[in-house]
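Tokens in:
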């Protein structure tokens, strides 16, 4: 069910889609951050992915500034929620972020400025760690930064950008079918691969910045990367191209990449984050093997 809280005076040029699931406080913080420097010709679409309706927050304070729409749907997962937002987006450019992210001022305009409509070109922004005192959040950010550093060595451009900071030409994204809803993780990798196979471009928008503040504990860190490993198995199993070899090569380069990224950290922090990286590799491998086994069955 779609509930339009606010309505823009003119047709929006830009749309932002935010999937959410039972994280009321984080969602409100995300919207409060979006208000700063939000373009007058843009809209926000929040998709409640099967979360509790009774505890869903009152978002009416954002109706005028964000031209807000709220869509309540069954729990289909983040890819499904993003596709619902995509179908309802009125802007010619659609951007995606998550409810545990805090966009910095002018994030949307800077991200959208890097998008091209013809020929279609998507853009990914830059993500910062919003919880620098949390070892597992720091390790999660390091994993992202290592991937970015590794992608910069590629002569043929970036492989993918995370779905919490990316924007597409709306019409072109609809043409290729949006996100693959059979993926619960690695859906951004699968989409960017399909996007590039369609002959479309993918570029970096380094000044489009969000702060990511995940609720990260040891257990959540483990479960997150087991899930990511399982998604990676499905991702690699869905194609016979060179992505599997690229991924294996990346993991072989992890020690050197991690050393380069942690060069300025204190020794104590390096030790704790290094331990978390070892846990990440083990969790990722565990999930990957589970995904391979499940695929064979």
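Residues out:
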């Amino acid at each position: 069910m779609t509930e339009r809280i606010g309505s823009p005076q003119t047709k929006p040029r830009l749309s932002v889609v935010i999937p959410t699931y039972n994280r009321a406080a984080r969602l409100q913080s995300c919207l409060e951050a979006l208000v700063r420097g939000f373009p007058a010709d843009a809209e926000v679409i929040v998709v409640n992915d099967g979360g509790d309706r009774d505890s869903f927050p009152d978002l009416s304070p954002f109706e005028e500034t964000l031209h807000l729409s709220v869509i309540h749907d069954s729990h289909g997962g983040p890819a499904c929620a993003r596709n619902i937002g995509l179908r309802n987006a009125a802007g010619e450019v659609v951007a995606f972020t998550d409810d545990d992210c805090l966009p910095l001022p002018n994030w949307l305009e800077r991200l959208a400025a890097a998008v091209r409509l013809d020929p279609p070109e998507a853009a990914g922004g830059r993500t910062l760690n919003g919880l620098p005192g949390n070892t597992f959040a720091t390790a999660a950010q390091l994993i992202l930064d290592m991937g970015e550093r590794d992608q910069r060595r590629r002569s043929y451009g970036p492989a993918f950008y995370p779905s919490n900071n990316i924007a597409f030409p709306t019409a072109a994204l609809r043409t290729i079918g949006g996100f693959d809803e059979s993926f619960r993780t690695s859906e951004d990798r699968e989409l960017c691969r399909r996007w590039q196979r369609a002959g479309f471009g993918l570029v970096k928008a380094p000044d489009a910045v969000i702060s990511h503040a995940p609720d990260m504990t040891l257990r959540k860190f483990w479960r997150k990367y087991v899930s990511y490993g399982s998604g990676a198995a499905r991702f690699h199993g869905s194609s016979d191209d060179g992505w599997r070899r690229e991924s294996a090569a990346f993991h072989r380069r992890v020690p050197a990449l991690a050393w380069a990224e942690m060069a300025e950290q204190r020794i104590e922090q390096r030790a704790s984050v290094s331990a978390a990286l070892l846990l990440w590799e083990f969790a990722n491998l565990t999930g990957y093997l589970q995904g391979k086994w499940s695929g064979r069955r």
